């Protein structure tokens, strides 16, 4: 069984996002062993300078790096745009070859460039920007969809 790690910055505060994530994690149990690792989000209440943002990214990045293993995929807007079908093929290939995948979801300011450099690849689900808590819902849903595509399930139409 493939091991999937989801390393994300911050905790989900909204019950409706947390419920959605839990539902997809429950569904994924039959396909993969999934772990969600939350690292501390660092925010500044006032409008941060570019230097402060870089410092936040660096500090979050150091925490993220402690949890990288297997094939590492960073979710980044500049990453390769993938369809659900190609995402499924990608997971299948990694599953067959390595057996462990780590996805990274950054915080409010994104992912530090040093973490992106350590990633095997970067992917993007859209050119749009999403709150990182919503992105967690989208990611677990797409991972679930990927597995149902692999088994020709009815979930993906």
Describe it.
With 157 residues, the protein is an alpha/beta fold. Helices cover 44% and strands 24% of the residues. It contains five helices and five strands, in the order βαβαβαβαβα. The protein has a five-stranded parallel sheet with strand order 2-1-4-3-5. α1 (15-28) links the parallel β1 (2-9) and β2. It is globular.
N/C terminus separation: 25 Å
What profile does the largest beta sheet have?
A: 5 strands, parallel
Q: What is the number of helical segments per DSSP (H or I, 4+ residues)?
A: 5
Q: Could you state the order of secondary-structure elements as H and E?
A: EHEHEHEHEH
Residues in helices, as a percent range: 40-55%
**Overall pLDDT, averaged?**
94
Rounded to an integer in angstroms, the radius of gyration calculated over CA atoms is 15 Å
Oligomerization status of the protein chains: single chain
Uncertain runs are none
**Sheet with most strands: strand arrangement:** 2-1-4-3-5
The count of strands amounts to 5
Shape: globular
| Secondary-structure class | alpha/beta
Strand content: 15-25%
